[in-house]
Amino acid sequence: MIVTLCTTDKGTFPFLSYRKGACVYLDKRRGETKKLYLVARNQLVASKDSEGRYRYKEYESTVLSTSILYPLISDLASAQYDKTQQERK
Fold first, then answer.
1. How many Å from the N-terminal Cα to the C-terminal Cα in the chain?
2. Within 1-89, where are the H helices?
3. What are the mean pLDDT values of the chain's consecutive 10-residue runs (89 residues total)?
C-alpha cells in the first residue's frame, strides 16, 4: 500500500492505493483514515529528538510535514490490511 497524490484543478489530494487497484481518499478529518493519520502523527511526535527533528526510517524533518507522515501512514495501513487478511484465513 502506498500514498499517491492526485492533482486536479481544485488541488492535490492524497489517496491510499491498494495493490489490487482500490484507492481510498486519505481524509485526515473523518473515518478510518483519520485514525491512521492520528496514530502516525502521535508516533512522529513521540520520535522527536533533542534537536527537534522527527524521524521515521530514512525520513527526517523538523516539521510534521506530509513528506514524513505519508510513508508512516502507508506502513500503518499496510500492516492493518495484512492483519485483516490473516484474520480472514
1. 20
2. 31-46, 66-88
3. 88 87 89 93 94 92 90 92 82
